[in-house]
């Protein structure tokens, strides 16, 4: 059953006529992507929580905005996110009508990626990792060798975001002995084969 907050209904009803269908549509997509989402009013505009802050939407005088709480960590293969977007603008830029939004399937895909971050307990960051940082993420030789022997684990690792991969790499590098390092490599492969992120134990 969809859980809605009457204060969000009131916010939408009080918004400008052009904004109402936009907000209604975004709200429907959020609930479709994440049935467990919880609606809240924070800082006077609608937020949606899923194991922590998830996303938000807002209506202004002449446009609407949609924000992912951890936008800098969400893969953006279509380059839809606007650089330097803030709350008043949002990742999809100024939304003045439904035509300004990406296709529903694309929005749902991005929402699913945002859910994965919260599932993994990934902390918010203020910026997207640079290409240099991604390139400099040196995977330990032991992990590379172990992943080559486990197809499922390798597929999961390769599909993870930079931050997810870094969580595992840092954990292995922090091992103080070879025995601990090897044990962590084994555990990493085991968890990856199950599709788990490094911090899966801390999921709420």
Describe the structure.
- There is one protein chain.
- By secondary structure, this protein is of the alpha+beta class.
- It has 2 domains: 6-119, Alpha-Beta Complex (Aspartate Aminotransferase, domain 1); 131-202, no CATH class.
- The protein has 8 helices and 4 strands, in the order ααββββαααααα.
- It has helices at 6-14, 19-33, 104-119, 131-135, 141-148, 151-159, 162-173, 178-193; strands at 38-42, 45-49, 53-59, 64-68.
- It starts with 5 loop residues before the first helix and ends in an 11-residue tail after the last helix.
Q: CATH class of the largest domain, please? A: Alpha Beta
Mean pLDDT: 85
The string of secondary-structure elements, in order, is HHEEEEHHHHHH
Rg over C-alpha atoms, rounded to the nearest angstrom: 19 Å
- Strand order in space, largest sheet: 1-2-3-4
Biggest sheet overview? 4 strands, antiparallel
Distance between the terminal alpha carbons, to the nearest Å? 20 Å
Strand content: 5-15%
The percentage helix is 40-55%
In CATH, the topology of the largest domain is named: Aspartate Aminotransferase, domain 1
| Count of individual beta strands | 4
Please, how many domains? 2
* Uncertain segments: 84-88
Question: What's the architecture of the largest domain, going by CATH?
Answer: Alpha-Beta Complex
Give the overall shape.
elongated
Tally of individual helices: 8
Class from secondary-structure proportions: alpha+beta
């Amino acid at each position: 059953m969809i859980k809605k907050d009457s204060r969000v209904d009131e916010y939408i009803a009080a918004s400008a006529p052009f904004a109402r269908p936009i907000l209604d549509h975004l709200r429907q997509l959020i609930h479709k992507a994440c049935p467990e989402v919880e609606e809240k009013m924070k800082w006077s505009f609608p937020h949606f929580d899923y194991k922590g802050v998830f996303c938000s939407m807002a209506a202004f005088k002449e446009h609407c905005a949609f924000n992912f709480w951890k936008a800098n960590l969400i893969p953006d293969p279509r380059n839809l996110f606007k650089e330097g977007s803030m709350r008043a603008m949002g990742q999809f830029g100024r939304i003045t009508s439904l035509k300004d939004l990406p296709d529903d399937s694309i929005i749902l895909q991005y929402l699913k990626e945002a859910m994965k971050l919260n599932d993994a307990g990934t902390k918010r960051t203020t910026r997207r990792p640079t290409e240099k940082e991604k390139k400099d993420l040196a995977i330990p030789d032991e992990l590379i060798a172990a992943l080559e022997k486990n197809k499922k684990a390798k597929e999961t690792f390769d599909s993870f975001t930079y931050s997810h991969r870094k969580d595992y790499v840092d954990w292995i590098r922090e091992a103080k002995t070879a025995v601990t390092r090897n044990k962590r490599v084994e555990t990493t492969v085991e968890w990856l084969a199950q599709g788990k992120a490094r911090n899966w134990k801390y999921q709420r």
